[in-house]
Known about the structure:
It is built from eight helices and six strands; from the N terminus they run αββααβαβααβαβα. The protein has helices at residues 2-24, 53-56, 67-75, 93-100, 117-121, 126-144, 167-186, 215-219; strands at residues 36-39, 44-51, 80-87, 110-114, 148-152, 192-195. Helix 7 links the parallel strand 5 (148-152) and strand 6 (192-195).
Amino acid sequence: xxxxxxxxxxxxxxxxxxxxxxxxxxxxxxxxxxxxxxxxxxxxxxxxxxxxxxxxxxxxxxxxxxxxxxxxxxxxxxxxxxxxxxxxxxxxxxxxxxxxxxxxxxxxxxxxxxxxxxxxxxxxxxxxxxxxxxxxxxxxxxxxxxxxxxxxxxxxxxxxxxxxxxxxxxxxxxxxxxxxxxxxxxxxxxxxxxxxxxxxxxxxxxxxxxxxxxxxxxxx
Length: 220
């Protein structure tokens, strides 16, 4: 209730700040490079990565520097990794669900999910978002039958350089609320592992737009 009351009181300023950011924010492209492949040697591992711009590699120039490239490179030291990336800038949980309706089923061992910041910026209510996240996991189970999900934790929006106060504070509080609901659910699922975002956001961890990860942060 306190957060809702604060947002209502601050809404003229928050709207003005959000519109200003849309005007001035640097528009970075998704990383170039392949979105599927096979790498490494050893026991086979079938990997899918699903998400938003943080999965699509916005903030770096090539997929080799992004989440997919750096993750598969690390795994390739131990496995023959067959991987594919399904990610889109601006994706929300709801839009990802809609996109998956036309995706082709395939067997996977592991699915990594990097998704949620765009739900925060749209202030999707926590109960609604949790239901969408549950539907997303259910859909992915039907499509890919993975043994395990790894869910990337929500980043601390309250420390994003691009965002001014009080918009930064408001989005940070909402991100924490969504993440609290999601963690409580994931803790009940044996096939879900939550990867907590517990780093200090040093400037060199962020891309030039002050919003997306740099290559260094993707590596971490």
